[in-house]
Amino acid sequence: MRYFIVLSAVLVIAVLALATLTAPNRAALNAESKAWEEFHPLHYASYLKNEQVFSDRHPEYPPKLYSYVDHYPGLQIIWDGIAFSKDYNKPRGHVWSVVDTEASLRLKPGAVCYACKSAVAANLYLDDIAGWETVSWDEAAASGDFSNPVGCIDCHDPLSHERRISRTFLTDALSEQEIDQDFIENNFKSLLCAQCHVEYYFKPGGSLEVTLPWDNGFSSEDILYYYENYVMPDGTVGFTDFHNPTAAVDLIKIQHPEFEMFKAGGTNPHDRIGMSCVDCHMPMMPQNSVEIRSHWWTSPLRHVEESCSSCHTNTAQIQAQTKAIQNEIKEKQGAILELLAQAGLAIQDAELEGVDSLLLEEARGYFQKAVFYWDFVAAENSYGFHNPTEARKAFDQSKEYALQILDLFN
Ligand code: HEC
Ligand code: HEC
Ligand code: HEC
Ligand code: HEC
User: At CA 308, angle to CA 303 and CA 312, rounded to 5?
Assistant: First the structure.
């Protein structure tokens, strides 16, 4: 009996030693997602689905992605002064993030643009590497160092494979807001996406650090309040992204605030019942006939059964209701953009006609708010679905300010 135990123990140790010797080296895992395939072939296969480009999103692909600029002429006026008026495409899957950024004509202030496009940035943040953000864009792009798109290491620790947040600007924003641990735990899965699917700005003063405007909360009003009261390094008050020559006013450009829209105002029914981005965008799905957590980040309407039917049993009905919300928002988006364009041109005309400068000042103040509220919905990628109440509210505000401008000059 004793011999048997000893023999078994020796055997177990031998097997363990062999396993250790032959085990693939987890520590070698890095920003290249292909290297993770060895450990998780099904998840990697699911991830590769992100290569698909769909004609319902990008009807002229290949080679052309859907360009907002081609379809919304009003963008020439509100984004006059920033290259969003020339180059502004709909997104596509995560594996394209680096290619699409490098191809974009928009001004890139530095390597910091890779912060949410390249998996390489995960380690730069976790290792607290200082100053990489300000390396010139051309130098960073030419180096090839950032060529790995959004991937495993953005959300998983390479050793334990546990999920963790790599973008420390997110944890910084949460701790500065003194958000309690409960919020972080309850929203952890959504926060994995909020590493990138958020509105941000580059800290003025030269460092270009990515910063989130969250001190006052997540709603459009909270974020506008933050920017309007921002104290710049030179002591002036108010943060803006660019100068718009048509209306002769400085404006903010919002970037994809999916997380904020989802959380804003407690008015999103899915947030209210504690759902996360992962519940709809990463449901359990068959991959090579095995059920796994999907790593294909796409429209959940491509897999309504898996994403929605656990609660909405009538999938045709819920799909129709979703489309109805989106169509309403799309229609408003187009109509209000036309009002904004008219308002911008009205300010320009008024200036040429020599209208009183106080009146012009007032109109420009309204223009800043009108454009901000419109963009908070337009730059969010769900056409209002993530929070219909907040989307409608922001559009109402935008419309009201635009009409006030037109009233001023009539
Ligand atoms: C955007 C964040 C994100 C990225 C990128 C990502 N994952 Fe995940 N992964 C998740 C989330 C979230 C879950 C689990 C969801 C749940 O079970 O609630 C998960 C689950 C997993 C699991 C199941 C085991 C577990 O921890 O529950 C594996 C294996 C996995 N991921 C591998 C990968 C691989 C391989 C890659 C790269 C090809 C990758 N992931 C990229 C977020 C991500
Ligand atoms: C490290 C940054 C990063 C993280 C983390 C991240 N994303 Fe993304 N996501 C992007 C970028 C960048 C794009 C646009 C890529 C492009 O257009 O080339 C994108 C695009 C998308 C798209 C659009 C795909 C399409 O085909 O239109 C969806 C959906 C999406 N992400 C969902 C998620 C979800 C859900 C999470 C969290 C589980 C998440 N993302 C986490 C950066 C990220
Ligand atoms: C209740 C389900 C649900 C939840 C939860 C959810 N989404 Fe969505 N998401 C959708 C639907 C539906 C769409 C619209 C897809 C379409 O237009 O075809 C969408 C669209 C998107 C898009 C644009 C996709 C595209 O094809 O262009 C992105 C990006 C995105 N969501 C990210 C997120 C993030 C980040 C979160 C968490 C903060 C989140 N979603 C939470 C259902 C959900
Ligand atoms: C975990 C349960 C759950 C899942 C999964 C879920 N929903 Fe919902 N959904 C709800 C609840 C609860 C409400 C609020 C119902 C009410 O107010 O009557 C809701 C409301 C809605 C509404 C009405 C929103 C409004 O404000 O008018 C739409 C549209 C919707 N869901 C679409 C979807 C879609 C599309 C999916 C999948 C991508 C999905 N839901 C997944 C629980 C869920």
Answer: 135
**At 233, which helix (H) or strand (E)?**
none
Pocket-testing residue among 188, 195, 281, ligand 3, by greatest number of atoms within 8 A of Cβ: 281
Locate the domains of the chain by residue range: 27-298
Q: Whose C-alpha lies nearest to ligand 3, atom 40? A: 277
Beta strand pairing call for 210-211 and 201-202: antiparallel
Cis peptide bond N-terminal to 62, omega within 30: yes
Say whether 109 sits in a helix, a strand or coil.
coil
At 260 the pLDDT is 98
Ligand 1 pocket residues where CB is under 6 Å: 33, 36, 40, 43-44, 47, 150-152, 154-156, 163, 189, 192, 278, 282, 293, 295
Contact 63/111 with Cβ under 8 angstroms?
no
Q: How far apart are CA 179 and CA 215, in angstroms?
A: 10
The Cα–Cα gap between 108 and 253 comes to: 14
Dist. CA 342–CA 229, nearest whole Å: 28
Buried b (16+ CB within 10 A) or exposed e, 32-68: bbebbbeebebbbbbbbbbeeeeeeebeeeeeebbbb
Residues 6+ apart with CB under 8 A from 232: 204, 238, 239
> Strand, coil or helix: what is 10?
helix
Encoded amino acid at 184, one letter: I
- Residue 8 banded pLDDT, cuts 50, 70, 90: low
**Domain at 27-298: CATH code:** 1.10.1130.10
| Ligand 4 pocket, residue 283 CB under 6 Å | no
Q: Which helix (H) or strand (E) holds 55?
A: none
Cβ atoms of 258 and 268 closer than 8 Å: no
Maximum alpha-carbon separation in the chain: 104
∠ CA(205), CA(260), CA(225), 5° rounding?
55
Q: What's the pTM?
A: 0.95
Return all residues near 26 (Cβ < 8 A) that are at least 6 apart: 39, 158, 159, 161
Cα 232 to the chain's mean position, in Å?
25
260 lines ligand 3 (CB under 6 A): no
pLDDT in tens, 194-232: 999 999 999 999 999 999 999 999 999 999 999 999 999
Identify any residues that bridge with 286 across adjacent strands, giving them in sequence order: 291
Q: How many residues does the chain have?
A: 410
